[in-house]
Amino acid sequence: MSTRISVGLATCGLACGAQAVYDELARLARETSAQARNGDEVTLRKVGCLGMCHREPLVEVERDGTRILYGEVSPEIAARIFEDHVLGGRPVAEHAIGLGTDEEPDTFFAPQTRIVLRNCGQLDPEDLTEARARGVYGAFERVLKGMDPEEVIDTVTRSGLRGRGGAGFPTGRKWRFCREAEGEPKYLVCNADEGDPGAFMDRSVLEGDPHSVIEGMLIAAYAIGATQGYVYVRAEYPLAIRHLRKALDDARAAGLLGADILGAGFAFDLAIKKGAGAFVCGEETALIASIEGRRGMPRLRPPFPAQSGLWGRPTNINNVETFAAVPWILARGAEAFAAIGTDKSKGTKVFALAGKVRRGGLVEVPMGMPLREVIEGIGGGVPRGEVKAVQMGGPSGGCIPASLMDTRVDYEEVTATGAIMGSGGMVVLDESACMVDIARFFLDFTQKESCGKCTFCRVGTKRMLEILTRITEGQGQPEDLDALEELSAATKRASLCGLGQTAPNPVLTTLRYFRDEYEEHIRDKRCPAGRCKALLTYTIDPEACVGCTACAKACPVGAISGEPKQAHVIDQVTCIRCGRCVDACRFDAVKVT
Amino acid sequence: MSAANRQANRVELTIDDCPTRVPEGTTILEAAEGLGIEIPTLCHNQALTPFGSCWICAVKVDGARTLVPACSTRVVPGMQVTTLDDEIRRTRKLCLELLLSDHYGDCLAPCQMTCPAGIDVQGYLAHAARGEYREAVRLIKQRNPLPLICGRVCPRPCEDMCRRQVVDEPVSVNAVKRFVADWDRSSGEHYVPPRAAPTGKRVAVVGGGPAGLTCAYFLAQRGHEVTVFEALPQLGGMLRWGIPAYRLPRDILDAEIDSILELGVRAECGKRLGADFTLQDLRDQGYEAVFLGLGATASRRMRAEGEDLPGVLGGTDFLREIGLGKQFDFSGKKVTVVGGGNTAIDAARTSLRLGAQSVTVLYRRSRAEMPAQDEEVQAAEEEGVEFHFLAAPKRLIGRPPSPREGVKGRADDEAAHSPSPQPSPTGRGSPAQERLAEMEYERMELGEPDASGRRRPVPIPGSESTLAVDVCIAAIGQKPELSLLAGTPLRQTDWGALASDPYTLATEVEGVFAGGDCVSGAATVVEAVAHGREAAVSIDRYLHGRSFARDEPVFNISKGDWDKLDPADFEHYLRAPRAHHSCLDVAQRIAGFDEVEQGLSEDAMRGEAERCLSCGCASAFDCRVRQLAAEYGVDPERFADGARRKELPDEEHPLIRLESQKCILCGACVRVCDEVRDVRALGFEGRGFAARVRPAFGESLLSAGCITCGACVDVCPTGAIVERLGQQGGPFATETSPGVCAGCGVGCVYDVHRVGGRPLTVRPRKDPHQGPNNGLFCITGRFGLRALDPEQRILAPMVRREGELRPVSLDEAVHRAVRLLVDTDQALALVSPHATVEEMQTVQALAGALTGAQAGSLSATREQEALRGLDRVLPRPQSPASVQDLPGSDCVFLVECDPQRSHPVAGVQALAARRAGAQLLVLASEPTALDCHASLRLRSSPGGTVVVLAGLLRRLLTRSHGAYDVAGSDALLRSVERISSAAVEQAADVAPAELDELCDRLARARNPVVVLDTSRAGARLSQAAALVAGLLATQAARPPLLALRPAANSHGLTRQGLRPVVLPAAGHPTILTVREDVAAATQGRALPAVVADAVWSESAAHAQVVLPLPTRHEMRGHVYATGGLEGVTGLGVQPAGGEEVHEVLGRLAAACGVQELSAQALQPPGPMTARAAPLGEPLSPESLCTPPEPVDTYARLIDAWARDQGLLRD
């Protein structure tokens, strides 16, 4: 009887205490094998992100051919699972996802198509043997032995794979440009500088399945004729870097990287370049500058990196997710990939589903799935109230209003809304979100992350941010909206790189779909969502107030006065709108309008 | 890419619908330039890699998703470019507004912005602080022809806005103006502005007051024929008839008027418009334009009962009549003046001087609201004038005079020229004969502010009281007197002024302009001056048939009023109290009409001028952001309430100031420092809005490795990086004269920017055809002028007497020098390569005239060996190649030299070649600064470099190609036959493979340059390098040897045949040195008798006679730089010592017997070589082996040397 226990030890799991759970299970497993009861074989392994980040720490027990996933596991629960399920064969129903009263894992996983995430959570990322057993490097070996580079490029082209970094440029075409470019050597770069706040697709893939990324790069290098590659990964991803480094060492030792790969005379090696975490370094030309040791500042294209990239040589840059999809395409064929998705957007897309949604986490869906199905189906909808909007594409993206929830998730339809597919950030907003504040939040990010080169991106975004801040503080003027539109248009039209060209998107989409909300802020000095502090009024309902004095005691600025057992009053001038009185009142007497 | 190839790869495109064909790789900006289409730029700089950050050059390309930066977008076939449309214009304007929203400073200082006449206050204060008084006057007179007058009576709004108030008190601006104007007046030859050629056009100026006089002054300067018509008997208007002499002495007024008349302005006094002539008369007399500066001469009435009583006078009427010579005697009288303006104070103080028993000023508001200048009010108080504030006259009460009073009263009445009815001879009987006795007035309180912003006085009911008054002067304002213009088409405003355009001052009548008080109502002198000047500009444009629109739109940003600024920004200024002028004591004052205020002393005035904080931007004259902002009509306030970077200027570097708060982050400085200079002292820091340009790692500029070349200053499009010109550094509009840097042999050309005849700063000239540097510069060239301490200058001839040098006349010094030189039979004249060709010629002539004398150079000894080596191979001068040849070279071969350190501009040019793809080959026994850029670097053992060159010669000659199989090469080959690769390795530690590589690369080069430093090379090394260059010359047009010489005129020295001099070991010749320091060079072994130099030296300190010479910025003359480039230096700068070269040295030479050494005789004998032509005889292979004894000597030398090294055996 063999039992396999997998603990999700990606960053998402670790952050929720999965290490303690793992340690407890490891201790129990050691003791078990020491006692060698019944000859049971218990294997315990570390795996990457299992996807249901909202239920971390996750432990999966595979016993008797069935798998049961436990969520929110503490060391104590782990001990119980070990005792009852691993040793005793009795699943612990109250902690198992999909058993008893809990939701079906099917509602979360069944609508997904896991291509990029095919191995994530399914194997130990630090174990090359296990990876190869699951078929990693198989596609590369077949390519190396049986296909010429043109065929590889042709396959990728036919698959319809588009760059998953955000811009959606056809990958096959990009490879061909680089292959055909004059100049030696050629370089291959994996862009793992995942910068969108709240996005963790690339990190999860690198943490959970680094070999597939290396395999994808090997295939690309072979197709393009590149001999040296870099993985540009931000230094804030230490676990991803550790797993990647181990994977590179193992692959090199196994002859999968180096001078004469698998004896086929093909040479390619990979190095890790740690980025210091500047958002703009995800931009290709800035990324190249950063690898070269210069300040990460974009430059005008053309020349494109495919013509003149790293050290002036032809360079091909793809994102982690793109590379991870490549082996699958080569293994299953271009047609299998192209069969998934829509007319112009093929395959799947990974999203980091977050915000006001019941089930958040790493999800991979076929292109073309209606947004509603992702949010309500996989995500289970918002916990309270209604969906107000979905923010897609991170700070470069935009807000898709609830009225457009039938939008199909593919490059064209998402772009038509004013948002972008982006690298995969998907934040669900409910009615408590103030759209002006959301725009301000994202603009604050891009504004700070601008490299400072282009005038509009450096100063224009700052001025837009100031206008938005002014509006949220009740100081907005009607002409502010015109200024926002003028600055947005100019910044989009007159910036060198994607950062500036997309920075106004959160402003433009919220202006487009939620203009009335802006106007309410400006005209009525009112925030309909009740988020903008400066625009709130706290009052005490004299009918409901019993004069318990709790609010007056809680008020940090002494704005509340009143005799005990008498209705209290808030002095509006002194009030700093901190909301502590609301929390303190047990009678719902404090009203916020 | 070959020329033919480039021709083939041309790209066709259209820009603004104009088709064009340009080479592949051209940017849109360059293509547009070719079509004459101008696209604005800020971050772009031709010398740098396109960056594309500012977006001011944004243009539209059909089909492109975004706008594109024209500076960095390369053309593609079929491209359709639009360089200007609504969106582009809007985008550029917004771009500038954003840049300016984060650009904190003042274009022009608030004083200048406030001055109605727009005088460059900061500029003239700076001149005054530097002692350049004439320049200060010139600058003032560009905007105001009346500095003597305004220096005394101006209410000086400039001082109210002076930022110095944040530190302590405002700068006493006007006192400085008065000082320089007084200085100019008493200097003997006062400033006269230049006058344009006569235009033949006549202009009539009606009214001889400040507006009319100013208008006449500027029109006359522009060559127009101007006549001033004045109604009263003398010119001056209110200056003469309104301002008492104790404030404005009449001789001062007359002097200033005379300085205007001397420009050819005619005056016709006693001619009143409307009475004596009409506008039509003027037209008939051929006046093509008329300026009406009629003034506001009519006193306003009080509208109080009894106003027409005898004894009641109008303020201006009163003052005018005094001016016209009427005698008033106020002895024993009680005078009340009504009003709070300057006229009221003038009337009050004048009354005191006329003997009044008491003078009271009645003003309906409080002291704080008084429009009169505070200092005037104070002076009046000091003199005994009493003030009744918050009081207004209600009724003037008359009383028949007593018989005694009647006599006196009648006299007064006549004198007062009262408008009242005829007094009866008896002075008795009718009410009309009553005269003023009392005034009933009421108290006022201040109510709500009125239109003027001042609180309106409101009578307090029942507060009436009376005051005994003999004379009441109503000085409550004036209005224009336009009754004589009734019936003309000239329109009047509702309040009785002439209507004219506020900007152009044109009236609605063709060719008639109006300004001054008759348009504005009673105002200040400086406002009238402003009108007069504006009108002159408009009239000039009108006369030339041009529109009134001004050529240059103006734009200005300001930090804001001083009281709104953060005092912390001013904490670093030292406090220095304002200087106050002295005044006559009160008794003296009221005894007559002597000028009360005395000017400042020169020291106090200089101190005041130095208190100026120089608020205005150092780049105000050439800021591209400012120019564009004006052009695009930018609103600087658009985002003014947003955040901005506010940092105090970084003053740590003594010569360069960083003003980060003005930085627009174009990055040109960062790029030039990195790309061109290879220094990287500046870098970007931070992200987003907080991104900025900083010295690397937050260090100060110097510790970040700055080499002080100033390239960043040159490329900064605004005032964020500026040259520090001291606290009082202007900015000034400058005049330029050319110069050649004497710092080293490169001979960089520059412009000396002069102001007031004195050099202010030096900027490299940017023209690849004019000099070797093409805009490049190093610390020596840019700042060498600063190093010249005025204390170190020799400014007067001196002669040693009783052991000490004493100043004497030039004649005496020359006489003494001649005696010393003639009285010996072994005179030695030493001249340095810092001297000009003319100086060298003079010295040679001088030596020729003396028996037994010889001329030579001591400084050249350093190069002696190298020159001897070069002499054997090359015709003179020995550097056929120039630094200018470096950028275009495809292979730069540095032989034992380190130009980055010794000749920085040559180093930078070598680097430029490298960056453009050239090979950089370095052969040296020591590390050089260019090693890290070398494509091949050979490190020879010390002293082994010459062997490597010999080996190289052998390899070149034996290469299979046979390229060098020419006549004469056999002999050369034989001489180096034995310097095998192995021998080279053994002797010089350079591996055979390295030598092969060097040889291959040189042989492949199409356009090589061999670079040698004559100060570091011995004879054999030089000769060998010249031979290598000679072999390579079979491919190049001329022997590509660049000999870097130590001084700008080293070649001139050689050319003049001034040989290195070795001082005799024994015997003491009588030495004359010209710009040489023989004492220092010989450690005092040899001391000169006569020293001619610009600066003190050890030699000068020991000399018997010292003669002053001009510096290189001052002297006119010629130099020959590396490559035989001829340069002209120092045109038109007055030498500090006062003497030109031919005057001092020429007189010495003449006194020594040289005949006909005029300035003409000193012209150099034409250029040494044409720029493009080979120098002298092209170095043929034959010449390698023939004269002057080349190969044999060389072979012998090599042989001898190799034998010494044990490389060769017999």
Q: Any idea of the CATH topology of the largest domain in chain A?
A: Rossmann fold
Number of domains of chain A: 5
Report the helical percentage of chain B.
25-40%
| Mean pLDDT over all positions of chain B | 84
N- to C-terminal separation of chain A? Answer: 63 Å
Largest sheet of chain B: 7 strands, mixed
Average pLDDT of chain A, rounded to a whole number, is 92
Count all strands of chain A and give the number.
18
CATH superfamily of the largest domain in chain A: NADH-ubiquinone oxidoreductase 51kDa subunit
Major sheet description of chain A: 5 strands, mixed
What's the shape of chain A?
globular
Please tally the β strands of chain B and state the result: 42
CATH level 1 name of the largest domain in chain A: Alpha Beta
| Overall radius of gyration of chain A | 27 Å
Oligomer: heterodimer
Helical stretch tally of chain A: 23
Largest interface in this structure: A-B, 33 and 39 residues
Named at the architecture level, the CATH assignment of the largest domain in chain A is: 3-Layer(aba) Sandwich
Work out the helix count of chain B. 42
Short descriptors:
heterodimer; A: 593 residues; alpha/beta; Glutaredoxin; Rossmann fold; Ubiquitin-like (UB roll); five-stranded mixed beta sheet; 23 helices; B: 1210 residues; seven-stranded mixed beta sheet; disordered N terminus
Account of the protein in words:
The complex is a heterodimer of chains A (593) and B (1210). The mean pLDDT of chain A is 92. In chain A, a hairpin with a 5-residue loop joins strand 12 and strand 13. In chain A, the strands form five sheets. A five-stranded mixed beta sheet of chain A has the order 7-8-6-5-9, with helices on both faces. Chain A has 593 residues and is of the alpha/beta class. Chain A folds into five domains: 2-102, Glutaredoxin; 128-338, Rossmann fold; 348-430, Ubiquitin-like (UB roll), CATH 3.10.20.600; 435-524, NADH-ubiquinone oxidoreductase 51kDa subunit, iron-sulphur binding domain (de novo design (two linked rop proteins), Up-down Bundle); 537-592, Alpha-Beta Plaits (2-Layer Sandwich), CATH 3.30.70.20. Chain B has 1210 residues and is of the alpha/beta class. Helices cover 31% and strands 17% of the residues of chain B. Chain B has a seven-stranded mixed beta sheet with strand order 30-29-40-39-38-31-32. In chain B, strands 2-1-5-3-4 form a five-stranded mixed beta sheet, sandwiched between helices. Chain B has a five-stranded parallel beta sheet with strand order 8-7-6-9-21. In chain B, strand 39 (1090-1093), helix 39 (1098-1102) and strand 40 (1105-1108) form a beta-alpha-beta unit. In chain B, helix 6 (133-141) crosses helix 10, helix 7 runs antiparallel to helix 10 (173-186) and helix 29 packs parallel to helix 36 (1019-1032). Chain B is elongated. The chains are: A alpha/beta (593), B alpha/beta (1210).
